[in-house]
Design a protein that fits this description.
The protein is α+β, with helices and mostly antiparallel strands. 15% of the residues lie in helices and 33% in strands. It has one domain: Fumarylacetoacetase-like, C-terminal domain (Fumarylacetoacetate hydrolase, domain 2, Alpha-Beta Complex), CATH 3.90.850.10. The longest helix has 11 residues, at 153-163. It binds magnesium ion (MG).
Length: 204
């Protein structure tokens, strides 16, 4: 399986990092080895002094497809989860300055938190109005709503499937809202999707 990630999909987060607003989705991939195993803590990697959490709505693909029109994209997923796209911001900044790829900053082991539970989309209502939050040590740190996405889930699927065949079990991280911040040892990161706690991660 592969993890397809969308960057710069919420204007408040684009503003906080002073990035340009994209005309089409910003896309990158993470390998399956980046998934943090369940019940494991997240270890801050030795090569970074500035790892940020990015909480994101995650879509799990349930059938194979290529060149999917957004009108039919909803047939390619039936469950939604929540994750963290951990980002070594200092490493990413150096890559960006040199125009280099971001994998070292985003695709290292443990850099992808995926909730164990996914929620059936029928139980979530309008997927274009989904609320989600990240609490750091019980303080609200990120609060998002999918209504603020520049590209919604179906538009993302249309776009990425032009380039990559989507396969069963592939995950799409749909971008983070504002509020990203550095994680420190002993932080506890809790993810909420549509009012339900869906993961809790300890940082080491
Ligand atoms: Mg991200």
């Amino acid at each position: 399986m592969k993890i397809i990630c969308i960057g710069r999909n919420y204007s408040d987060h684009i503003a906080e990092l002073q990035n340009e607003r994209p005309e089409e989705p910003v896309v990158f991939l993470k390998p399956d080895t980046s998934i943090l195993l369940h019940k494991q803590p997240f270890f801050i990697p030795s090569f970074s002094n500035d790892v940020h959490h990015e909480v994101e709505v995650v879509v799990r693909i349930n059938r194979i497809g290529k060149h999917i029109d957004k009108k039919f994209a909803h047939k390619y997923y039936d469950e939604i989860g929540l994750g963290i796209d951990f980002t070594a911001r200092d490493v990413q900044q150096r890559c960006k300055e040199k125009g280099l790829p971001w994998e070292k900053a985003k695709s290292f082991d443990g850099a992808s938190v995926v909730s164990r539970d996914f929620i059936k989309k029928e139980d979530l209502g309008d997927l274009n109005k989904l609320s989600f939050e990240l609490y750091k040590n019980d303080t609200l740190q990120q609060s998002g709503n999918t209504s603020h996405m520049l590209f919604n889930i179906d538009e993302i699927i249309e776009h990425v499937s032009k380039y990559f065949t989507l396969k069963i079990g592939d995950l799409i991280f749909t971008g983070t809202p504002a509020g990203v911040s550095k994680v420190e040892e002993n932080d506890v990161l809790k993810g909420m999707l549509s009012g339900r706690e869906i993961f809790s991660i300890k940082v080491k």
